[in-house]
Design a protein that fits this description.
Radius of gyration: 13 Å
Strand content: over 45%
Number of helices: 0
Largest sheet: 7 strands, mixed
Structural class: mainly beta
Amino acid sequence: QVQLVESGGGLVQAGGSLRLSCVASGITFSLYGMGWYRQAPGKQRELVAAIRRSNTNYADSVKGRFTISRDSAKSTVYLQMNNLKPEDTAVYYCNAALGDSGRAYWGQGTQVTVSS
């Protein structure tokens, strides 16, 4: 059974930092590209950051503020979020995708709220 379990969300003031973690189980972690998505109320889910092997990509809105990383020994992907803004408020979801196979899994989400 595949599980992606996120943690680290919460309430923070603008300019603050949070680190999200996602622990994966039931998959061969090294084979999967990992990503963080977010969905704000009334908006579509959007890609925030992704990492595949050592290659990373970021949404323009978070470049220079967020950093995605992975620890294969712990089957964990992280999202370090600095200089948070109110517009970063959303539910953040972890995603694991196996190349172009179409096989993908989602976590349950963790709420991030940034107050102004």
